[in-house]
Design a protein that fits this description.
heterodimer; A: about 180 residues; mainly alpha; Butyryl-CoA Dehydrogenase, subunit A, domain 3; 8 helices; B: alpha+beta; four-stranded antiparallel beta sheet; globular
Chain lengths: ~180, ~350
């Protein structure tokens, strides 16, 4: 555990984990739509953060864990077929898992809508509007360019508006489905 | 500038909460982390042991007079390796353990056997015959199970694979390990969801000892050190990546990505670009960045393409928070051997 003793490092990690878990859990839930999948994802992120704990500064620990969390899902999404990556498929609603409450309320509505977004758009929307990251920090977390974040955010917002039954956005703000050549 | 819909969305996202769940136990997370560290140490020790064994076998062959050029027998007898799928599946105390064995088959062929460790012992799974001369990857998945097991035709494959599935089967945890005494490695990829459909596994990339990506047909891709990072590109140019992540290349002439030099957000930021071969073969270009700066940088051969990198330092703003560098590649310019100047904007 680097310069500090293992006990001190473990204590610091425990403090961090207690503080970070709610935020990470909600981020993971918004990304996966499943409480159980989110819990496992947070576990993975925290375990990997612990493994690297000696190299992680306290002030950047949450960003580090969030980046691990998102990139774990990135591995998932990048393992899909290329057709999905073109963002042109009307994908079915992802299995969201049952919450056990039986309540299909507004709380879950946004999660169901998010599940219908292509992965890149879902990631950027969650990081930009839930985690409140800047475009640059979102790009850092996802390992993509700022331009990619901008495009994915724009398309994601447009899709969410459409799915919500809201009027189409101002045409001037719409982005093409594919980057111009 | 935020719109009313963006504000509404932000409020919705902050208001929503997951269903109640059992909180995570710090001791369990720390214990899992310690197991990961221990596995890494054990694996390093095993790699060293295998290397010693290979040297010993080679020495024995030479001293017994076998022609130097003769191939080393792939598997004179049954040889096995145990794989444990790491990641989410074992955090709850449920390890998924498999044994992959290679044994002599009919004629020159070898037989690969797979087995899964269950509470009742080991359960054999369907195996396959392989031709030692066939250097393609071999894998199997069991019906609607969540696991893909296979054999890589290399004893020195790196400890990572990239599996491309035909659909979203959730995340996958993987393990790769050499099969002692053979020139094969075994791998497992354990998905969160059962693999369904006729062909759920589209492709598998593995990495040779140099870090070059190798596709399922045995086509070896390329690597280059670009911007201090080892970057790889598949032989067909459709996928590239580094230790920072992997990417599917789009149709753009210049495919741009970026990475930091470390986990901290204030680490130097590197703009990485891969230029398709029909665009330029120039050994150096002038790279224009979105911050208004320009840099004359070399281009590094990466397969048939060329790659370049421009690194800018990380920095803090006046509040102490990490400031976004907002730097992207906007354009490259170069002059060809005939003296003609070229300008190529980056349109993404």
């Amino acid at each position: 555990m680097g310069r500090t003793s293992k006990a001190e490092g473990d204590a610091a990690f425990t403090d961090f984990m207690v503080q970070a878990e709610p935020s990470l859990m909600r981020t993971a839930w918004l990304l996966t739509g499943s409480t159980e999948a989110a819990r496992e994802l947070v576990q993975v992120a925290l375990v990997k953060t612990y493994v690297s704990w000696a190299k992680v500064r306290p002030e950047t620990a949450l960003a580090f864990a969030r980046r691990v969390l998102v990139n774990h899902k990135v591995d998932v999404w990048r393992s899909r077929s290329r057709e999905v990556l073109t963002d042109t498929l009307d994908r079915p609603v992802a299995a969201g898992g049952t919450t056990g409450s039986g309540a299909s309320d507004d709380r879950d509505e946004i999660v169901r809508l998010l599940a219908r977004l292509p992965e890149q758009q879902r990631k950027t929307v969650v990081l930009r509007f839930y985690a409140d990251l800047s475009e640059r920090d979102t790009a850092d977390a996802l390992g993509v360019s700022v331009g990619t974040v901008k495009a994915a955010t724009s398309r994601g917002l447009a899709t969410l508006r459409e799915l919500s039954g809201l009027p189409a956005p101002d045409p001037a703000t719409r982005r093409p489905e594919r980057s111009p050549r | 500038m935020s719109t009313s819909y963006e504000e509404q969305l932000r409020e919705q996202l902050h208001a929503t909460t997951p269903a109640p769940y059992a909180g995570l136990d710090p001791a369990a997370v720390i214990g899992a982390g310690e197991r990961v560290v221990r596995r890494g140490r054990i694996r390093a020790a095993l790699v060293a042991a295998v290397a010693v064994a290979v040297v010993a076998v080679g020495t024995q062959l030479l001293t017994t007079g076998r022609p130097v050029a003769a191939p080393v027998p792939a598997a004179p007898s049954t040889s096995s390796v145990t794989l444990v799928s790491p990641g989410p599946a074992n955090l709850g105390g449920v390890d998924h353990t498999y044994v992959v064995s290679v044994r002599p088959g009919d004629g020159k062929d070898l037989m690969v056997d797979y087995a899964e460790k269950t509470a009742d012992g080991f359960v054999s799974m369907v195996g396959a015959g392989i031709d030692p001369a066939d250097r393609r990857i071999t894998w199997a998945h069991g019906g609607t199970s969540s696991v893909v097991l296979g054999v890589i035709p290399s004893a020195t494959a790196q400890h990572r694979i990239i599996v491309t599935a035909s659909d979203d089967f959730g995340g996958y945890a993987s393990d790769v390990a050499a099969i002692p005494g053979t020139d094969y490695s075994a791998f497992v990829a354990y998905y969160e969801k059962p693999l369904t459909g006729d062909n759920p596994v589209e492709s598998i990339l593995w990495f040779d000892s140099r870090g070059r990506p190798v596709d399922g047909q045995g086509h070896v891709g390329s690597i280059a050190t670009v911007g201090g990072e080892q970057v790889w590109l598949t032989a067909d140019g459709t996928a590239l990546g580094s230790d920072q992540g992997s990417y599917v290349a789009g149709p753009e002439d210049i495919y741009v990505n970026g990475f930091t030099a470390g986990p901290q957000a204030d680490a130097p930021w590197t703009v990485l670009a891969v230029i398709r071969p029909e665009v330029t073969t120039a050994a150096a270009v002038t790279a224009f960045l979105s911050d208004g700066s320009s840099h004359v940088v070399p281009t590094v051969p990466l397969g048939k393409s060329r790659a370049l990198a421009v690194t800018v330092p990380g920095k803090y703003d006046s509040t102490g928070a990490l400031a976004p560098s907002q730097v992207t590649l906007t354009e490259i310019r170069w002059t060809d051997s005939a003296g003609t100047a070229h300008v190529k904007p980056v349109l993404r």
